[in-house]
Amino acid sequence: MEAKRKIEILSTIALSEEQIRQIQSLDERIQLDVFKAKEVNKVSDETWRKTEILFTSGAFLPSAEKVPNLRWIQSSWAGVEKLLDNSLLHQENVQVTSSSGANVSQLGEYVIMMLLMLGHKMPLMIQAQRDKRWVEDKFTSLQPKELRGSTVGIVGYGSIGREVARQLYAYGATVLASKRDVLHPEDTGYTPQGLGDPLGNYFHRLYPNEGLPGMLKDCDFVVLTLPHTKETECLFDREMFEAMKPGAYFVNVSRGQLVDERSLVDALNSGQLAGAALDVFSEEPLPPDSPLWTHPNVIITPHLAAYSPNMMNQVVELFIENLKRYLADESLYNLVDLEQGY
Fold first, then answer.
1. Model-level pTM?
2. Which residue is catalytic, options 303, 317, 321, 325?
3. For tag attachment on the chain, is the N or C end more exposed, with fewer CB atoms within 10 Å?
């Protein structure tokens, strides 16, 4: 890079004064402009023209003609499937990175919470409390399924799955995991220090995606963390739920489009599944007439598993790490493969 050339960064995400200071302190050449997403219409044509790096949620992306100097787009989201059809991402000289890994701490905690709540029959106990009913047959109807000694299957051993596996280690569960490329169990994406499983140490066995049914039959709990792509659309259909161990529990923190919800309801009604915890749905908000709302063995949350007061700080930390690599002309974390969709 030329010594005196300005590095023009445009953030369409609101940043605190401290975050702005941290970014600008990396290099004296950095010129940072910050606009809120709803104020993107106030960005001048000249600012767009100069922009080399765009830090964005993906909303209100400019046309490729407006940003001839753009070289890198950092998304504030881990999932970028909604951006893939935008022609800007397909410009030959533009790199696109996601925020995969930034929010895995709270996602891991959410999954552990749901595994414990399902295994310890919390939905039934909460309903009994609402009914002001003392459960007389508690030693049979409320018999728990403990994590210790159980087998937990993680479908998609990416940043979320690896953090779930790390947190499960202390519980003494056996972790099985699936991954597209089983020959490379390590993770080269962004991992906050001390989190995740970058070296692939926390699973007991790794399965290729084609071997998923064989993995599911041994799992007491199944956690779905895959990205939404053409290949994963409705991955969990009737056949996949039938392949699961009878009486298993299901947790989805990926995308609702990966699950055929009619087949999920049927599996719950038949007892093939003992319960489910769902943070994502094929239609959001979940329609009031969905049978999932009233199912006694289902826990529903409104797509908030990744949320935390620290959420944006974590994303900015990732952006700063990637910016350091960009300035050093190193490969960026979480480069999006537009063909794969993540």
1. 0.95
2. 303
3. N
Distances (CA, A) of 72 to 6, 53, 280, 335, 338: 15, 5, 29, 10, 14
C-alpha pair distances (Å), 12 with each of 34, 56, 60, 228: 6, 5, 9, 25
From the candidates 162, 166, 228, 255, which is the catalytic residue?
255
pLDDT for 4 equals: 75
Q: Buried (b) or exposed (e) across 49-74, using 16+ Cβ within 10 A?
A: ebbbbbbbebeebbeeeebeebebbb
Q: How far apart are CA 90 and CA 58, in angstroms?
A: 14
DSSP-derived secondary structure for 48-62: HHH-SEEEE-STTPP
Whether 162 is a known active-site residue: answer: no
Q: Dump pLDDT digits (tens) for 261-292.
A: 999 999 999 999 999 999 999 999 999 999 99
Task: Report the amino acid identity of residue 246.
Answer: P
- 5 and 29 Cβ atoms separated by less than 8 Å: yes
Question: Cα(44)–Cα(40) distance, rounded to whole angstroms?
Answer: 9
The DSSP symbol for 287 reads: P
List, in order of start, the domains of the chain with CATH numbers. Answer: 7-102+310-327 (3.40.50.720), 104-300 (3.40.50.720)
The 10s digit of each residue's pLDDT in 126-144 is: 999 999 999 999 999 999 9
Is 283 assigned a catalytic role? no
Tell me whether residue 262 is one of the annotated catalytic residues.
no
- Strands in 248-252's sheet, in edge-to-edge order, are 205-208, 174-179, 151-155, 221-224, 248-252, 273-278, 298-300
Catalytic residue among 239, 283, 284, 330: 284
Backbone angles phi, psi at 130, to 5 degrees: -65, -35
Residues pairing with 32 in the sheet: 9
What's the Cα-to-Cα distance from 219 to each of 119, 241, 308, rounded to whole Å?
A: 13, 12, 30
Sole residue written with tokens 């970058």:
198
Cα–Cα distance measured from residue 74 to residue 55, given in angstroms and rounded to the nearest whole number: 5
